[in-house]
Design goal:
The chain has ten helices and 14 strands. It has helices at residues 13-18, 57-63, 75-89, 105-115, 138-148, 153-156, 172-183, 221-228, 238-243, 255-258, and strands at residues 2-3, 6-7, 31-36, 39-44, 55-56, 69-70, 73-74, 96-99, 123-125, 149-151, 160-165, 188-193, 232-235, 252-253. A four-stranded parallel β-sheet has the order 8-11-12-13, sandwiched between helices. Helix 3 (75-89) packs across helix 4 and helix 5 packs parallel to helix 7 (172-183).
Length: 285
């Protein structure tokens, strides 16, 4: 971006908006940008004509802020389309749709609009607690889940509730959220996830580096549903997810869902991850 006579660089466009900078363009895959007193210089080390891009679709699903534009999409509108498609793929009779904040907000709006089931605020988030799945230790994740959300009993008591979330990685947070809703008086809890199951580790920097820690890698949908104590569970299909994106479908990395890695194993250093304990159901906790 540009601000007056200066260049501004950020990982998301929302940062440019907040300082009043004008968005110019993205740094392309395989590109290095140099900025010095003489201005801006760009070098391409890997031509996109020879090798297609592999944008991390989990950036759109989870990491990016909703007011950012990424890979040709507004993040909020992309996630809302995920929710619309999710409602088409996994409809269910219910009384209210609630989002798991903040990641599930946009998809829950889309689900509610498509299904005609009213959207309400079923959870209150403690904004002083950060994201849970990227915590390095499982004990830290459990503690933060307990502190992060509280259910509003007056919204869910005596009702069949659809909970929309952006993903399930280990299952830790989802199980706790369903327990919160049951404790608050929900008669049914139907979990809807706006991406496919995470069945493969990420080798490019996201904090799930081993299959052992991915609940979907070693368990069926029915087993996951039983572990979470949900009345039903629906994951968005890969086809549905990619159909919501603007860029060509083969321009995204979906390795964590499909196992098709855009860079070969030999090119990526693998970190050794200490295996964490499992519970009596043989699911990592």
């Amino acid at each position: 971006g540009k601000l007056n006579n200066s260049y501004v660089l950020a990982s998301e466009t929302c940062a440019l908006d907040q300082v009043g900078a004008e968005f110019v363009r993205d740094v392309e895959p395989g590109e290095v940008v140099y900025i010095n007193k003489d201005g801006l210089k760009s070098e391409i080390f890997c031509s996109p004509r020879r090798i297609k891009p592999a944008y991390c679709i989990f950036e759109l699903i989870y990491f990016a802020r909703p007011d950012s534009n990424l890979f040709g999409d507004n993040v909020h509108l992309f996630r809302k389309r995920l929710g619309v498609r999710l409602a088409k793929e996994f409809p269910v009779d219910a009384d209210v749709v609630v989002a798991v904040p903040e990641g599930g907000n946009s998809a829950a709006m889309g689900y509610s609009e498509e299904s005609g089931i009213p959207l309400d605020r079923g959870f209150i988030r403690n904004h002083y607690v950060g994201r849970t799945f990227i915590q390095p230790e499982q004990g830290s994740r459990h503690k933060k889940v307990e502190l992060k959300l509280n259910a509003i009993a007056e919204v869910v008591k005596g009702k069949r509730v659809i909970v929309v979330d952006d993903s399930i990685v280990r299952g830790t947070t989802s199980k706790s959220r369903i327990k919160l809703l049951r404790k608050a008086g929900a008669t049914e809890v139907h979990l809807r996830i706006s991406c496919p199951p995470h069945s493969f580790p990420c080798r490019y920097g996201i904090d799930f580096q081993s299959k052992d820690e991915l609940i979907a890698a070693n368990h069926t949908i029915e087993e996951i549903m039983a572990f979470l104590k949900a009345d039903s569970l629906g994951y968005l299909s890969s086809e549905g997810m990619l159909g919501c994106a603007t860029s060509p479908r083969n321009h995204y990395c979906t390795a964590c869902f499909s196992g098709n890695y855009p860079v070969s194993d030999k090119s990526v250093a693998k970190n050794k991850v200490k295996k964490e304990p499992v519970n009596k159901n043989k699911i990592t906790v």
